[in-house]
Amino acid sequence: MAKKLLLGCVALVAFLLIFATTRPDNFRVERSIVIKADPARIYALLNDFS
Q1: Which pTM value belongs to this model?
Q2: First CA to last CA distance, the chain
């Protein structure tokens, strides 16, 4: 029983490693939002982070 469990765990890890090698090396995350306000007011807030 313990051998089957260990073999299953090894097979699962091997599958995950093989799957990970087929994935792209990089990825990108983007967010966007629409703000209903005057652009000058928004620029003033984003231009000065202090």
Answers
A1: 0.48
A2: 62
